[in-house]
Fold this protein.
Amino acid sequence: MKFARSIMKHVLEHKLLLCIFLISVVLEVAYAVAAPVSLQYLVDEAFVPKNFDAFLIILGVLLGGGLLSVCANFAGDFSLGKLSGEAIRKLRGELFAHLQKQSFPFYQRYRIGDLVTRFSADMGSIERVIRGSFPLFLRDSLSALLGLAMLFSIEWKLTLAVMAGSVLMFAGPKLVQRRAETANSNYKEAQERFANTIDEMVKGHGTIRNLHQQTRFRELAARQIRELFSFGLKVHVANSLMERLPLVALLALNGLMIGFGGYLIFNDQMTVGGFMAFFTLFMSVGQSVSNLSYLIPNLIESGVSFRRIGDIFEQKPSVPEASDPFALPGFAASIRMDRVTFGYDGQADQLKDVSLDIAAGSYVAFVGPSGSGKSTALQLLARFYDPREGAVFVDGCDLRNVGEASLRRAVTMVTQDTFLFYATVRDNLVLDNAELTEEDMIEAAKLARIHDIVAGWPEGYDTWIHREGGSLSGGERQRLAIARALLRNPQILLLDEATSALDPAAEADINGLIDNRLRDKTIVSVTHRLASVVNADNIYVFNEGRIVESGTHAELLRLGGLYADLWDKQNGFRLSRDGLRASVDAERLARLPFFAGIDLGLLGSIAELFESETCREGTELVREGDEGRQFYIIVRGKFEVAKTIAGGGEKRVAVLQDGDHFGEIALLKKIPRTATVRSLVPSMLLTVRRESFHRLIEEHPQLQQTLERTLLERTTPRISR
């Protein structure tokens, strides 16, 4: 109802157009009703008595009324077109603006296909109602009422008889209405599911082909297309019944009218002219009522669309704009989190009573194991979410009181999931900042180490970016995102794994940029790669939603806690500047439980067996059920471990990152893999094959005995072996 009132508000804003339309409808309907009544006067007053003067008068009135009706039609069509167009234009704009105000939970609830269907199918249905169905409903309803009044004036007994029979015209559609509403609702939901499948197929076509999932998607699409056919057929049948049943009733009424009308004529209770006028007017009224029955399916469909779009308008942002927003000052800002507790779903908390202080102009890092809450904390600093308890402050001001525009000018976030617009490189960098010069753009691109690459393309900065950046490599997308952030010149720069897709040389350059060139900004970096934050002013170590340690790199190493353990896990690798080759030293292998107790000299021989291997995002290194033949150590990258669940799907059970390892049992035993391991980002690994390892065992038999003893002592085997 709120949504319907919103539409009426837009219509009532144009009172002149509305008045012109209503007047034109009245004139059009009045003429349509009066024209059949003129038959009575033509027959009884002109044709039967052969009164030529009366004929001319009646003809003149008919022609004049017809001309007035035509003019009213033109005026009504124009006013309706402009009136409905303005209402739809404002409605689309309001829906678009409403979506922009929504917070992250809204976009987790509604998928792309859900929202696109609202703009296309549902908005199209509403537009058809406003432009066509509702004006016709108004016109035919008025025509039926005026016609009914004229029928009473001609012969009330015949009119009552017809009205009693007309109940049949509405009883049938009423019986089918609920069925039609359910069918329309199911059909629109099926459209949403199919639209979501198309969106996923287009965006993930590379991954789909890489994992050879075309058959699964074809089967999914075929099933959804069958659903569309099934629900569409039910909609068609229900709508057809609602349209045909009134016609059947109208045929019965025609028979009733002719029979009873003939009886009245034979008993001199009605003239032939009166019957002709009644019959013609009845056909006109019957046509209007029949038109109303044709409109009912459209109105039912639009009612479903009204409800679906109304549901969107009723969604309130979980991160609302303050009623009296505060503007942040235009200089480097301090940040404070005061006893913050937060959970995405209201059940499990990702952050628990977290407090921290970040001085203006400092460089701070959030580190910790996967799922420890560090990225969640960063999203609260960007105010993508509000804490359930506690508060986040910038320069002493609660972010809930800061205006959206002021906050986005002051804070810019660069994530590992870079989104680029369907535009040129130049437009993606400059965006809406008309004050930026060509020199500013090039300088930022040079700092992000992307200028030479772009300059080498045939169209340079005028190169179009397609598929949200899918036409570029991960590193190129990441560098463009960093350059874009630099051009916005924020007071606070938030980096969420911003260098994860870069090669070692590019990552070192970006880290040098942060260390040497951006110290006028407050920088908060979330990373799992500890080597990139050794120069941070302060490092907060997260674990299970809490800050368990804080200090500089040196202080945390001396503390010997979780940070030191993470550092030891990632340390001991040597990586070439291009990121294509890596090696590991014996001391690093000695820290693996699998190699515990083995002499360093022998570990040095094992280290020489490792080969470098790179893989792209989505590469499946290990498939559940296949025979294991290799042992892997992750030098750089991120991998998911997934197990098959009942029903044929997969469930992610772990995430592996720099320094983690998997597949060690494959070096000794020929057993199937117990899980699938798949890369989430471009990655670098060290790997050793069973054949190479067995040759070393033949030279050093004690190695196998030590390894088997170590495996036996382990109480919990790794899930990804």
